[in-house]
Design goal:
Strand content: under 5%
Distance between the termini: 44 Å
Oligomer: single chain
């Protein structure tokens, strides 16, 4: 009778362990499904960041191009003798002031119109800061 009781206790423990194992496997399946969804979201987010970075670089290149054109126009208006004859003293003063501001802004990196964005989001938008090390996954899966 004592052996039968021990076997019954062991059988009940085995049943509980099987139920625990089933619940753990279900939780594992849910966690793996969630991880897969998050990996897809991460991939889409990385692609979106890359697209936005390309747009930003194109916009910055266009901005530099337009600033250079503006600088050439300032120089032409201020240095061209025919342009100086057409401009009044007040207009030349305003142009030289604007040209001076423009030159200081282009010579002082980080002080452009988007400096607030550059300073606050530089680490968020930098390609070098965005990385995903898969070695952590390997450790977890083993």
């Amino acid at each position: 009778i004592q052996i039968v009781r021990c076997f019954e206790v062991i059988r009940q423990k085995c049943c509980r362990l099987e139920q625990d194992q089933r619940r753990a496997r279900e939780q594992l399946a849910c966690a793996e499904a969630d991880r897969a969804v998050l990996e897809v979201k991460l991939k889409h987010a990385r692609n979106q960041v890359e697209v936005e970075m390309k747009k930003r670089h194109r916009a910055e290149a266009e901005l530099q191009k337009q600033e250079r054109k503006l600088q050439l126009i300032f120089e032409l208006l201020l240095q061209d003798p025919s342009g100086s004859a057409v401009l009044t003293v007040e207009q030349r003063s305003i142009l030289s002031t604007l040209a001076g501001r423009h030159i200081r802004r282009t010579l002082a990196p980080g002080r452009s119109r988007s400096s607030a964005v550059d300073e606050s989001c530089q680490s968020l938008l930098s390609h070098s800061d965005i990385s995903y090390d898969r070695t952590d996954d390997d450790v977890v899966r083993k």
